[in-house]
Amino acid sequence: MDPGNDTGTSEFLLMGFSEEPELQPLIFGLFLSMYLITVFGNLLIILAVSSDSRLHTPMYFFLANLSFVDICFTSTTIPKMLVNIQTQSKVITYDDCITQIYFFILFAVMDVFLLSVMAYDRFVAICHPLHYTIIMNPQLCGLLVLLSWIMCVLNSLLQSLMMLRLSFCTQVEIPHFFCELNEMLQLACSDTFLNNVVMYLAAVLLGGGPFAGILYSYSKIVSSIRGIASAKGKFKTFSTCASHLSVVCLFYCTMLGVYLSSAATQSSHSSATASVMYTVVTPMLNPFIYSLRNRDIKSALKRIVGVQVM
After folding, report:
1. Which letter does DSSP use for residue 278 in this model?
2. Residue-wise pLDDT tens digits, 238-293
3. Regarding beta strands 91-93 and 11-14, do their DSSP bridges make them parallel or antiparallel, or are they unpaired?
4. Residue 230: left if φ>0, alpha if ψ -120 to 50, beta else—which one?
5. Which runs of E-coded beta strand occur in the chain?
6. CA atoms within 13 A on the CB side of 55
7. Three-state DSSP class for residue 93
8. Which of the four pLDDT bands, split at 50, 70 and 90, describes residue 4?
9. Where does this protein have coiled-coil stretches (predicted)?
10. Whether the Cβ atoms of residue 287 and residue 74 lie closer than 8 Å to each other
11. What pLDDT sits at residue 276?
């Protein structure tokens, strides 16, 4: 591609999933439904935790933060896509695109950090139950969340500022439903070597690091559970972290599947479709995973909505 007036690029086109006009109402209805379920479900979790004093514990404190981040994570991409479908416009401005990249990275990495902090919480609860309230005190819980936010903000700011140094070619079509960082780098006409180094280094440190912490926590949890004599005791102990483990597997497996499939097919359209799993489906399913197997959450939700929860 021959670069034109690169620095003057002010708009991009989000190509989305399909250009077929007859599919647009179906796509709009599907994503609007998933977005509303995500927001409503996670808001219920936040309300349940904040309104029930029995849920004022570290585990539910982190869960409420995760629900808040999931709402923000989904709100970074889906509303813009819905507006574009409704107005039959694919345009997103340069400033909006950089802003979307910033918040997408911020909330995606914050999801990872919160999942690792929640794994540490389950590790302390199961492996050091007598010291749990001392170790997981309110000050430490608040500090863990605060440090996570600070690291995520700094990383997002770095990635966004690195994007500002790039110039773009006349080809401004993004084969995705949001401004995905890797897709944007492929559109750039200027040298992206430094951007790629920063992106992959951040992925290893801020993605791989917390994942290693999760694996370590669960290796210790499994060892502790194996030491319990009765099968009933093992099941009861494991059930306290089953929901979190399900969410971790869902989030990491879908994200890994997206990038493996996109690397295998080299198709941006396939990557966009697959990325729906971790950007939309996972945040939508999290409230169901945490509520359906949790009596405390179900009883709190019952008091809020006034009906029996499954």
Report:
1. I
2. 888 888 898 898 888 877 777 666 556 555 666 777 788 888 999 999 998 888 77
3. antiparallel
4. beta
5. 11-14, 91-93, 173-174
6. 23
7. strand
8. very low
9. none
10. no
11. 86
Residue owning tokens 């070619």: 169
3-state secondary structure of 170: coil
Q: Which amino acid is at 153?
A: V
Look up residue 216 and give its two tokens.
Answer: 């370590």
E-only strand ranges, 15-152: 91-93
pLDDT at res. 15: 86
**Side chain identity at 159, as an amino acid letter?**
Q
**Beta strands 173-174 and 91-93, pairing class:** unpaired
Report CA dihedral (162, 258, 74, 106) to the nearest 10 degrees.
-30
CA dist list (Å): 123 to 40, 128, 267, 280: 30, 8, 40, 28
Give pLDDT tens digits for 217-235.
Answer: 999 999 999 888 888 888 8
247 in Cβ contact with 67 (< 8 Å): no
CA-to-CA distance for 207 and 113, rounded, in angstroms?
A: 8
Backbone angles phi, psi at 262, to 5 degrees: -70, -35
